[in-house]
Design a protein that fits this description.
This protein is an alpha/beta fold. The protein contains 18 helices and 27 strands. The strands form six sheets. The chain has a nine-stranded mixed beta sheet, sandwiched between helices. A five-stranded parallel beta sheet has the order 4-3-5-6-7. α12 links the parallel β12 and β13. The longest helix is centred in the first third of the chain and has 17 residues. It starts with a helix and ends with a helix.
Length: 544
């Protein structure tokens, strides 16, 4: 069934129960001021801001927006882009698109003006819905973006080149639009993270969305009494589909703006959150704050918090060991996935398998996995190969890109580009991205293995290992290291620590600097390669 039916069910069964909370612990109401005005506000003048809606209101808002789309000529199968920061309007707008039979196209809120134009044209969107923070970026190409497209502004003081969402939706009926939707209809286009050039448009059917929602609820046993804390951006499949476990369960969720340790812990405490999905940097920051004394766990009510899970990137086992030291009663899970598989969960560790931390896990609910060689044959157990997955959440295609589709979709299997191996118990361990593998002197070197080793050094907060061109070896390894606050180190100290690695894996170059990560927590290695003079490798990536 389409995932929209869960929303309609919740509105009938739990109409007056809170579905969503928007929480700005230290920000003003940015809907009523311009972004430039917000940037000038002194932190001492910030005031907490909180809104909430019930399941009934959530469903009515989705219906109103669906009816608005239909009234403005948006037909079944046409595309509506959404570029907004997390807010209480985000999910009702998304579900309104789905209820109208249109295709929801979330945009990364970090896109600049040219990337917004590129993605709008690539996905052939018919409408763009945007928030106040994006006025300048939309206005920069307003003439081209408005050609054959509707521009709809969500906020106060609507710009002249757009129409007002609030004014238009207020006059629309709140009853269901009555558009017939099946699992075989197209439901969403997501974009690849764009770490290897401009992003690709990933087309999914409604079947994918329902699969992701039901899988999330099953994997984490989300129940009616749970409360999910959602911090990452909703444009990303990870945040949205982890939240959809709450949709299936009919339970409450909190959209939190801000990711500082005290903000996260305060939200868990005040909103009685039970499930929290973190990115690696946020979990590290919480642990660092506990250890340096800037955060005291006794200041918060955390006894109800039952599950912390992490995804979007390889998780250092040392991080989970540290976490369990301070939160011994927490269940823990790792989720693996990609936008082409409707986000996280096609492989997951499982809360019952904490002894296998370091693995990404086993095939998720309704998923199959293989590890294959270059010729597509299964490798021997224990050997490294490319991870391929198959299940009801696999994308239909890269929209308008049959060549790229053919490279990754083969006989129903999605080739992930991630190198992995499987242990005798059937658990899959991620080794590295296929394109990140360093070939030095004929040896394959997997950066994740080196990164996990260096992270054990007590002074290291974060690390990224990249390949740099080398005339003799082809490539040589370089480690970019971000130290913990207040710590100092040297190349010699790192070299000595790395004596614990085989000689060929030891970094030949050491740089101390901040590690750049994108909005989903992934290390931006192409940016590091460019910064450190590995333009040849960057060029190869951009051609792929």
């Amino acid at each position: 069934m389409p995932v929209t039916e869960y929303l309609e069910r919740n509105a009938k069964l739990y109409p007056d129960e809170v579905a969503l909370v928007e929480l700005n612990p230290e920000m003003p109401d940015t809907r009523r001021i311009t972004w430039k005005e917000y940037e000038l506000i002194e932190p001492s003048h910030f005031e907490p801001y909180r809104r909430e809606i019930t399941w009934k209101v959530f469903n009515e808002k989705a219906n109103r927006f669906a009816n608005l789309l239909i009234s403005r000529g948006i037909k079944k199968g046409e595309k509506v882009a959404i570029i907004m920061y997390n807010c209480l309007e985000w999910l009702p707008i998304y579900f309104g698109v789905l209820k109208a039979g249109a295709i929801a196209v979330p945009f990364n809120f970090r896109y600049d003006a040219e990337e917004i134009l590129y993605c709008a044209e690539l996905a052939e969107v018919d409408m763009i819905v945007f928030g106040p923070e994006f006025i300048g970026r939309i206005e920069a190409n307003a003439e081209r973006l408005s050609k054959g497209r509707l521009l709809l502004f969500v906020g106060d003081n609507c710009p002249s080149f757009s129409e007002s969402y609030r004014e238009l939706v207020a006059d629309c009926p709140s009853n269901a639009p009555g558009v017939e939707i099946t699992e075989d209809d197209f439901g969403a286009i997501y974009f690849s993270s764009g770490t290897t050039g401009f992003p690709k448009a990933i087309l999914h059917k409604h079947q994918s969305l329902t699969q992701a929602a039901e899988m999330e609820q099953k994997h984490h046993m989300t129940g009616r009494e749970d409360c999910f804390l959602c911090i990452p951006p909703l444009y990303h499949t990870g945040a949205k589909f982890h939240w959809m476990g709450s949709l299936v369960a009919g339970s409450r969720a909190v959209l939190l703006k801000g990711a500082k340790p005290d903000i996260i812990l305060s939200a868990v405490s005040s909103e009685k959150c039970t499930i929290v999905w973190l990115l690696v940097p946020w979990a590290q920051d919480i642990l660092d704050s506990i250890e340096n004394g800037s955060v005291k766990l006794s200041d918060y009510e955390l006894s109800q918090w039952r599950l912390m899970h992490i995804g979007a990137q390889p998780v250092p086992p040392s991080l989970v060991k540290r976490w369990k030291k301070y939160f011994p009663d927490h269940d823990y899970d790792t989720n693996y996935g990609l936008s082409e598989s409707t986000g996280p969960g096609c492989v997951h560790l499982g809360i019952e398998n904490v002894d296998k931390v370091g693995a990404i896990g086993v095939p998720g609910y309704r998923w199959e996995c293989r590890i294959v060689s270059e010729d597509g044959k299964d490798v021997k157990q224990g050997d490294v190969g490319e991870l391929a997955v198959k299940g009801p959440g696999v994308m239909t295609c890269y929209y308008n890109n049959p060549e790229a589709t053919a490279e990754v979709l083969k006989d129903g299997w999605l080739y992930t580009g991630d190198m992995a191996m499987q242990d005798p118990d059937g658990f899959i361990f991620l080794v590295d991205r296929k394109k990140d593998v360093i070939v030095s002197g004929g040896e394959n070197i997997y950066p994740v293995q080196i990164e996990n080793f260096i992270r054990k050094f007590e002074k290291v907060k974060d690390v990224a290992v990249i390949g740099m061109p080398d005339q003799r070896l082809g490539e040589r390894t370089a480690a970019i290291i971000e130290l913990k606050e207040g710590m100092e180190s040297s190349k010699e100290e790192i070299d000595e620590f790395c004596l614990g690695l085989p000689r060929y894996k030891r970094p030949k170059e050491i740089f101390f600097e901040e590690i750049p990560r994108n909005a989903t927590g992934k290390i931006e290695k192409p940016k590091l390669r460019k910064l450190h003079g590995a333009e040849g490798l960057v060029a190869m990536e951009n051609r792929s």
